[in-house]
């Protein structure tokens, strides 16, 4: 069976759904193709299940990109205030946690409900459990999947990265980029906890669950937020942030007493 649309969006995550909504609002006939049995599965686990859906202090300098002007352009077109207005339109209760981070009061499911509702209002069609077999381009894009053949003059690849394979992450986006000869930046883990060798972790495993405010530094970047000791290593916002800048072979400096003068760094990892 052949399905014809104005735009096809591969991936029913936050980015794919929001893209489909905006295209639908502009009068485009849009289809979202998602390989999972539901949309927004990654949204459900974000923010500890309450979805940290935006940050009121979000600025271009908060993004890591080879093209610093991309974030400026994107944020000028759609700001945190725009998404907050959408959340408030649907009367979703939320709160500011720390440093401008906004979380749902109830559950991340509220954000999925908002996106699904907006998709319906914009006439977006969603095809679940739709595994992509092949993507071609002739005079238009042709996507072959288990649900049939989809055609459209515009194709959006919003399949996500390689993180969390258990949640369904696949390399499809990278494979399509290579197929269409697009440049790919070397991938590496980012916004992740840090694991320690078993011997090292054993020295402080009894402290698992302990959290403290620290300053984490590496590669000329620093973040003052909470650190969490785990059975496997270190986590918490400070570690997740600095992990994006840490390079293999470098050290991470942790100031465990950031308000005490004369103590620049208390521990190296």
Short summary of the structure?
The protein is built from eight helices and 17 strands. It is α+β, with helices and mostly antiparallel strands and 269 residues long. Helix 1 runs parallel beside helix 5 (109-121).
Architecture blueprint of SSEs:
Blueprint lengths: L1 E3 L2 E4 L3 H12 L4 E4 L7 H5 L6 E4 L12 H10 L2 H10 L4 E3 L4 E4 L4 H13 L3 E3 L4 E6 L3 E5 L2 E5 L1 E4 L14 H8 L14 E2 L2 H4 L9 E8 L2 E9 L3 E3 L1 H7 L9 E3 L11 E2 L1
Parallel strand pairs: 1-10, 2-3, 2-11, 3-7
Antiparallel strand pairs: 4-6, 5-6, 8-9, 9-10, 12-15, 13-14, 13-16, 14-15, 16-17
Helix pairs in contact: 1-5
Give an overview in words.
The chain is 26% helix and 27% strand. The chain has helices at residues 14-25, 41-45, 68-77, 80-89, 109-121, 172-179, 198-201, 237-243; strands at 2-4, 7-10, 30-33, 52-55, 94-96, 101-104, 125-127, 132-137, 141-145, 148-152, 154-157, 194-195, 211-218, 221-229, 233-235, 253-255, 267-268. The strands form four sheets. Strands 12-15-14-13-16-17 form a six-stranded antiparallel sheet, covered by helices on one side. It is globular. The termini are far apart.
